[in-house]
Structures are given as structure tokens and as C-alpha cells.
Amino acid sequence: MENKHRTQSAHTNVPQPIRSDGAGATDLGPRDIMRDIENVNMFVPPVTDAGLIPNMRFSFSDTHMQLNHGGWSREITVRELPIATTLAGVNMRLTPGGVRELHWHQQAEWAYMLYGRARITSVDQQGRNFIADVGQGDLWYFPAGIPHSIQGLEDGCEFLLVFDDGHFSDLSTLSISDWFAHTPKEVLSANFGVPESAFSCIPSKQVYIYQDIVPGSLESQEIQSPYGTIPLSFKHQLLAQTPIRTPGGSVRIVDSTNFPISKTIAAALVEIEPGAMRELHWHPNNDEWQYYLAGQGRMTVFGGSGAARTFDYRAGDVGYVPFAYGHYIQNTGNQTLWFLEMFKSDRFQDVSLNQWMALTPRELVRDNLNVGPELLEALRKQKWPVVKYTDSP
Ligand code: MN
Ligand code: MN
CATH code for 245-389? Predict the structure, then answer.
């Protein structure tokens, strides 16, 4: 009896798949209550959700952790999130001195430093080199095919990598250790002009991440290339950029206009205050790949033909929106929501629903939607920064 009572009281905060109009019924289990609480908009979808929109969310917490001495990585690719064909993401941690080894790949690499500092190195196709330190809020971009490395500095670091191909995997790149391991030693000897014995201790397979000591100062590691340094920096300080401030938030946009080397990836770092939302909009250039940095929010993706689906997002989640699909992002928590929206494109572009309606003859808007003067008047007062927000009540 007492046992039964305890079970009932424990269930008072347990969500049930019942909408306020009474549709649905209790969930008798088995169930994962933690997930149901986190995903309230999937568990009890808004009545406006309908149709067969595929999954648009994947959490890094549900990925394989690649643990190495020197750090770890985990990734969200088309294997995890099949809709996400344009971009893939990797979350990586490097300890102080930990190294993501010398490597290259067929895809361009865009990165955002989440915590800590790292030293990045690269050499381009004309022998021009690049060695720089990056800190929290900094970006880097390595064009496709260009070799590079990343090493954690004093406090180590954690960062997000984004690649311009959803099929990318960071575990199958072209790495220097892998190449050495699969080249006949007599060829290595001939190539470098040293005896084969010089290669007697090389790794037998890809190293990927290894532990080393924290490197000395940037100056102490400098190598002067006779061909000079790269003409377009591979580094950009996004968080240091002056944001576009709007009611309810801010945005920092980075694309090839202010980070010229970043020819294939455009991004916006978006801040949405509690109670505010990123307004209804879409993007006329490509799919959107999102990474949630802090807080929690929800997004409804509208795909036409009566199809719409709502997802909840929190820090560490990846979201996705197919090309031209309508969407908004609402802060559903009590702390500031921060996320990155990214596009396989040289430019950031979006189309605002409000702006479109405000600049369309009023009779069309009025009669198309059967709306009254209240909405028409609100549209008349709209101002439009590059990315717009509306305060929600
Ligand atoms: Mn790489
Ligand atoms: Mn968007």
C-alpha cells in the first residue's frame, strides 16, 4: 500500500502524452522519463505538427566517444543524422600538450573554439606556412586538401569542427602516421635520403590523437618559409566581432565577406535571451546545420505539403533544416540560448517572413491570410536588421 502511494506521488511530475484538449492517453511504460521530460515537444507535439518530417536533431551525448591519450573526439555525420548531407560535425577535446596529428582531408574544415587554447599549423600548396594560437570564440578554416595539426596549450581545449560534407568522418582522414606506416621503408629511405633505420620506430598505424608536452611560445616554434606566410588568414576572431544587437538577442555573422578564406562555410553565432525568439525565416542558399552551445530552445521545421515537426534542443545538440524549409527558434529556458547556424555556402543569407509580408501590397497579405488591420499595422512598424528577432510575450 505504502509502496503504491510512493509510486503515485513520484509520478506527479512525470509528463504524459496527453494534449491540453484531451487527445492522447497515459504512457504505461516501459519509458525513458528523463528523455520525455527533455523532449516535451516531441512527446506532446503542438497540434500544428503534422506529416512525415524526418529527424532533425542528434545529441553529441548519443555518439561514440573516441578516447585517446591526449584527448577525445565524437562526431555527428550522415550515419547519425541521415538528413544532414551538407555538413558533418566533430566535437574534440585536447589535453594540455595533446595533439590532433598532422593530417589532411578532401573536405574543408571550419572550427569554433569552445574552451581553452590551441596552436594550429598548416602549409599551403605554394609552401607558405601558417602557425597561430587560437582561443575561446576564435575560428579557423583549412581549405580542402590543405595539411594541418592542432595542439592543446596550457589548459587544453575543446572545440567544434565542421566539414563541408555530411559523409565526412574525422576517423578516416589522410594522416601522416598512416601514410608512413603504409609506405615501403626503402621508399621512405629514398624519399628523405636517410637510412631505413631512421624509420625503425615509426607508428604501425594511424596515431590520430597523442599526448605530447605543451609547446613553447609561438616565437620559439616559428619556421620562416622562403615563400612567406599564407595570404588569407586561416584564423578569425568571431566572438571579438561587434555583434548586431536586436531586441531579444544578438548575432555575429562570419562568411567569405569578413573571413575571406572561408569559401565553403558561412555561419552565424546567435544569442537569444529568455522569452525571445529567432523569428520565422528560411535560407535561400542551402541547408542549415546547427550546434547548440548553451541554454535550451525549440524549433518547428515547416516542409510544405502540410508537414511540420517540432524539436527540443539543448547544449550539445545538433539541429538541421533542409534548404528553404521555414523555421524559428524560441528560447524555452530561463538562461540565454546560444547556438551556431552554419551553411555550406560562401555567404550567410536568410529571408524574413515579416520582411517579405511587410514589403508586399497590404491587400494581398490581408486577403491571402484573412487577417485584420492589427497585423498589417504591426508589419508597417517592422525594422529589419540583417537577422531579426521578435520579443515574444
Ligand atoms: Mn582536420
Ligand atoms: Mn535559420
Answer: 2.60.120.10
